[in-house]
Amino acid sequence: MPRTASPLLLPLFRSAAQARLLARVYLQADRPAPLAELAHELGNDRGGVKREADRLEAAGLVLSERVGRQRLLKPNRESPYYGDLYGLLLTAFGPAALVGPALRDVPGIEEAYLFGSWAARYSGEAGSDPVDIDVLLVGSPDRTTVYAVASELEALLRREVNPIIVSRERWDAEDEGFIREVKGAPLVKLERHDPKAVTR
User: Fold this and answer.
1) pLDDT value at position 191?
2) Which of the listed residues 33, 65, 84 is the one where a domain comes to its end?
3) Backbone φ and ψ of 77, nearest 5°
4) CATH number of the domain residue 78 falls in
5) Which regions of the chain does DSSP assign to beta strands (E)?
């Protein structure tokens, strides 16, 4: 695999390939995949992915599990770097970095948030890997357009994306149980012009 430059979004890793592999292993730990499948998924050759996997395992950041002749990678949750590394990868490569910009050109959205399990992970709450992504949109966007974007995101993130649209009046009123519940739990405001998330 030819050497790739460090990712522009988070230039802390040796290469973009390494960063993408770590993000895939850490942020989708419930979906371990053989190296050949990871290589195809990440758009890299199998030998290069194997070399990156060897380096990451030697550093104690990932663990290998053999299933027949296949080698599966999983995050090493016992690593002293696990918590901080997970947080970096989540911020740089997780749903908030992708969902916000994907909604950029959808008219009628005044505010957009992640809520539920992913928002809890962004705020540092421990828990299992979320199986879906809950997105709350304030405003009056066209539902067909929103669902089309959600479908594209599902293919990219390999997670179900559940958009919920609430009017500005409903969001501001706060006299409804669902709205109070959402506002009382972790929320991640989605920046639609810059792939960063601000956690409240």
Assistant:
1) 85
2) 84
3) -70, -10
4) 1.10.10.10
5) 62-67, 70-75, 109-115, 132-139, 160-166, 188-190, 197-199
